[in-house]
Structures are given as C-alpha cells and as structure tokens.
Amino acid sequence: MGPHLPGTADFGGTVALAPEDITIGRLEEQIEWYDRKSRYNQRSYKLLKGAEIVAAAFIPFSAGLRLSVFVTGTLGVLVVLFEGVQSLNQYYANWIAYRTTCEALKHEKYLYSATAGPYSTASAPHVLLAERVESLISQEHAKWVSVREEAAKTKAK
C-alpha cells in the first residue's frame, strides 16, 4: 500500500482525494489551460497581423518598382488570406477572453489561499471556491458561444 497523503482517505488500496484537493486540482488545470490557450492565440494573432502588415507594406513598394503584376497580386491575396484566417479563428478575441478568465481564476486562487475576500467569512471555503471557479468557466464558455454566434450572423449577411 502506498503512502497516505494529507487530505486523502484510503479505501481498500484506492486513494480518494479530499474535496479541497479536487477543487484545487481543477483550478490549477483550468489556469494552465487558459494560460496556454491565451498564449497560443496571442502568438497566432501577432504572427498573422505581422505577416499581413509586411505584405500590405510591400504592395506599393512592388508597384512602385514595377515588379510583375503577379508579385503585387500575390501580396494582395496574402493580405486577404491572413485577415480571413484571423477573422475565422478569432485569435484576438480568444486571446483577450482566455487571458481575462485565466487572470480571474488566479485571483480566486490567491484570495482562497489567503483566506481573504469572500473566503474569509465562508463556512465552507472550498465549496465557495468550487462554485466561483465553475461560474467563471461557465461565463467564459457562454461568451465564447455568443462570439461564435455573432460571427456566424455577420458572415451570413
């Protein structure tokens, strides 16, 4: 039989985590997920916008040098493609939404760890933490769905 971990109970060789540990585990997983997704969307957005700016800047340059219409046309097509991919994938909106949720989750973690804010007077702080974490995640999901629906309506027009 393995070592007994604090906050756990041993049930015939199976270790069950205490509710506090499950809540903190979920919180840590969500902070890591939102942080990773925020960074990915930030990088994607900046990469596409940077490439779009460079391509757009070279259009008048290539036209001024009287380069082939193929070169100038290709640069124009690239600008449209980069903007289209960004629009479809909503990298900027996702970056901001995921970063906002990540920071809100970190805020809850710090308040809980310090027994501050709403946790200072809660009779069951881990229950309150679980409810507040799930509420933040649900709100972010609802916003995500709303943005997708709005983007679909805009594209349909």
What do you see in this structure?
With 157 residues, this protein is mainly alpha-helical. The chain has one domain. Helices cover 78% and strands 5% of the residues. The chain is built from four helices and two strands. It has helices spanning 19-64, 69-89, 91-113, 125-156; strands at 8-11, 14-17. It has a two-stranded antiparallel sheet with strand order 1-2. It is elongated and about 75 Å long. Residues 1-11 have low confidence and may be disordered.
Helix content: over 70%
- What would the average pLDDT be, to the nearest integer? 87
How many angstroms separate the termini? 64 Å
Helices and strands, in order, run as EEHHHH
Strand order of the largest sheet: 1-2
- Our Rg estimate from Cα atoms comes to 24 Å
Report the biggest beta sheet as strand number plus sense, adding barrel if it closes.
2 strands, antiparallel
Strand content: 5-15%
Task: Work out the number of β strands.
Answer: 2
Uncertain residue ranges: 1-11
Structural class: mainly alpha
Global outline: elongated
Highlighted features:
157 residues; mainly alpha; elongated; disordered N terminus; single chain
Summed up, what is this model?
The chain is mostly helical.
Task: Give a topology summary.
Layout lengths: L7 E4 L2 E4 L1 H46 L4 H21 L1 H23 L11 H32 L1
Antiparallel strand pairs: 1-2
Helix pairs in contact: 1-2, 1-3, 1-4, 3-4
